[in-house]
Amino acid sequence: MINSGGTMKRSLLLFVLLAILAAPFAVASNFGSTGTTGITGTTNGVWLTGNSSFYVARVSLTSAYSSAVSNVMTNQYNPTDLTAYVSSPTYCDASLDVCVFDSNYGNTGINGWNSCYGPTSGSHPNRRCVTQWVRINTYHSPPANRIVCHEVGHSVGLRHSSESVSCLKTTADGGTSSTLSSHDRGHINGTY
Amino acid sequence: MGRTEGSVKTVITAGLALILTACGQGPSASDNAPVPSDHSVVEALTALRVSGDEVEPYVGFAEMGESADVVAWASMTSVAGVRAVGGGPAEGDTAYLLQVVVTPERANPQSGPLTMELMMPSATAKDAAVEADRISQRLPSEPLLLFLRDKGGGETGLYRPVNSRGLWLDSPDGPQAPLADEDLTKDPRYGPRLKQSGSVAGLAAEVLESD
After folding, report:
1. Is the predicted pLDDT of residue B17 greater than 50, yes or no?
2. Sheet strands (E) in chain A
3. CB spacing of B88 vs A60 below 8 angstroms
C-alpha cells in the first residue's frame, strides 16, 4: 500500500511537472516559419534565426526606432535564451541576422513587415533564414517599441498571436502591447 | 541622414512594360457562377503575402464594405509596372509595389479601371521586375472581390486592399484570401457568410446588390 501510494504520488508529480513544462506550447501555437519563397528567393513572413547568438543591426534608422531597437533587445529579447548584439552599420551584410530599416514607404496600410533576404535552410515550421530585413513604415508612425518587438518576433519564429499581452498580436486585431508574453518567451527558449 | 521623408519615387522598370503588355487579359466571367482560379494563380498571389502588422482593423464583410472607398467585382487585367517607394541611404529603405490594373464589372461607387498596388517581397528593382513578370503570366482569368482604399495624399488615385482580408477569389479549394496568412474560411467573421453565399462570386453579387 505504501509503495503503491508513493508510486501514485511520483506519477502525479511527474504529470504536473510535464504539464508545467508543456504549458508554453499548450496554447494555440504561434510559433514556426511560414514564409513562401518567391521566384527570386526573397519572401515575407516568419522565419527562424540561425542560433541563440542574435546579431541585430540598426541600418540608418531614425532616432526613435534606433532607440527602440536597443530598448527592446535589452528588455524583451535578452531576457530570453537569445543573446542579442546590437550594432549600427552603414549597410546590411550576411554576418547579420536581422537588419532593421525605416522609411516613409507611403500608405501601404502596413506598419512594418519582415522578409527573408539571405539563404534559407530546413523546412517549415523550422525553416531558418540567414539574414532578415525588418522594415518599419514611418508613414503610419507605429509605436516604436511595439513595432520593433512585433517584427523582430517574426525573425525568430513567432507568428501573430491572439494574446493581448503579446506584441505579436496585430494592430488590426486590436493589439497594443510592446512586450513579449510568457508564452512567446517559452517558444523562444524552447527553440534556441 | 539625408532622407527625404514622404518622398515617393516612381520607377517603371524598362522593358517590363513591353513584356507585360503582351500578357494583358480582358475580364471574362460576366455572371456570378464561380470559375475557380487554378493553383498557380493562387500561389503567385500568395507570394505577395506580407504577414506584417496591418493598420486597418480586421472586420467582417459588411463592415469592410462600409469602410472601403471602393468595393469591386473586378478582373486583374494587366500588370502596369513596379513602383519604388521610400528611399534613403540603405538598400532596405526602398520597397517595391506591384501595380495591377483592375477593371470592375461592378463596383460601388461605379468605376472604370483602377490601379491597385500590392507590396512585393523583392529586395531589389531587378528582383521586383522578375516577380512582376511571373505574376503577370498568372493573373486570374476571372474576377476577384476587392475592398479597396484610395491611398490619398500624394498617392491619390492609387488603391490598395484595405488589408490582407480585402482580396478574395474562388480557388479550386474554395474561397480564398491569398494575401492573408491564415485560412479565413475558418474565421467566424468570414466563414459563415461565405458558406451562406456559396462562393466569392455569390458573395460579391450580394454585397454589391445591397450597396
Report:
1. no
2. 43-44, 53-58, 83-87, 98-103, 110-116, 120-121, 128-129, 132-137
3. yes
Question: Mean pLDDT, chain A, as a whole number?
Answer: 88
B174-176 and B167-171 strand pairing: antiparallel
Report the pLDDT value the prediction gives residue B123, as an integer from 0 to 100.
85
- Contacts of residue A112 in chain B, CB cutoff 8 Å? 52-53
Cβ contacts of A59 on chain B, cutoff 8 Å: 90, 92
Please give the Cα distance from A175 to A78 (Å, whole number): 23
| Structural contact between residues A132 and A97, judged by C-beta atoms closer than 8 angstroms | yes
Crossing angle, helix A144-155 and helix A63-72, to 10 degrees?
60
Which cell numbers hold the place of A113?
513587415
Position A184 pLDDT exceeds 50: yes
Q: What is the CB neighbour count within 10 angstroms for residue B12?
A: 14
At residue A173, φ and ψ (nearest 5 deg) are -100, 10
- As given in the structure block, the three cell numbers for residue A108 are 501601404
* pLDDT value at residue B44: 83
Most A CBs within 10 Å, among B53, B83, B94, B133, to test the A interface = B53
Task: Calculate what percentage of chain A has a pLDDT beyond 70.
Answer: 82
Q: For B71-84, give one letter per residue: b (16+ CB within 10 A) or e.
A: bbbbbbbbbbbbbb
B201 closest CA partner among B56, B83, B37: B37
pTM to 2 decimals?
Answer: 0.84
pLDDT bracket for residue B41 (50, 70, 90): confident
Q: Which three cell numbers stand for residue B22?
A: 503582351
pLDDT exceeds cutoff 80 at A42? no
For residue B160, give the nearest of A43, A108, A117 by CB distance: A108
Could you tell me which residue, B203 or A19, shows the higher pLDDT?
A: B203
Q: Are A24 and A158 in contact (CB under 8 A)?
A: no
